[in-house]
Specification:
0% strand
Length: 191
């Protein structure tokens, strides 16, 4: 039942993200999810809450299933709290230099959420990469995706595509991992 609920929330988050992206252009800063959030603040808030809930229900489920060492859980919970604060700042503060200090809080929150979530997801797959070739492949794909996303962010600036691709990939990969991997084989015991 828990897997079904997590998969359902993830599917809703994927569908909502794709739908929310239609409000702006995919490849310009004017189409950034945060920019669309200025015009549609309620939809943006729903997107943020749904996305955070989907990502972190997957994270907690995967970590509790496959990573036994307590120190990793001690690290994931505080990082998740900081990511939650980052998402709250992203949703509460508007994006645009015309909003002054609010803009910088939005950017700081968005950056904190993105980086911390990326690190948590990548670390999970990295810790488990020796378990099965699927984990190794996912680790490589996630690493390449994050590096490519960073390069495009530097070159092209922020846009909906750059923001959404890593989120959508995580929202697809993590529930699939929950469904496919039925073993309870702790990665930390093999080290």
């Amino acid at each position: 039942m828990k897997k079904f609920l997590i998969c359902l929330i993830s599917t809703c988050a994927i569908a909502y993200t794709v739908w929310f992206m239609h409000f702006g252009e995919l490849t310009t800063i004017e189409g950034a999810l945060s920019k669309s959030g200025i015009v549609h603040p309620v939809y943006f808030t729903i997107w943020g809450i749904l996305t955070f809930t989907a990502l972190y229900s997957n994270v907690f489920s995967l970590y509790s299933k496959h990573v036994r060492k307590y120190r990793w859980k001690r690290l994931v919970i505080p990082l998740s709290a900081v990511a939650a604060i980052g998402m709250m700042l992203t949703l509460a503060c508007r994006f645009g230099k015309e909003f002054g200090f609010e803009y910088y809080l939005h950017c700081a929150g968005s950056l904190a959420f993105s980086i911390i979530t990326s690190v948590i997801v990548f670390t999970y797959y990295l810790l488990n990469c020796k378990r099965h070739w699927i984990y190794s492949a996912a680790t490589i794909v996630i690493g390449l995706l994050l590096i490519t996303d960073l390069v495009f962010l530097i070159i092209c600036k922020q846009n909906a595509l750059i923001e959404a691709v890593p989120i959508l990939f995580a929202l697809i990969a993590m529930p699939l991992t929950l469904i496919i991997d039925k073993e309870k084989d702790y990665a930390s015991q093999k080290s």
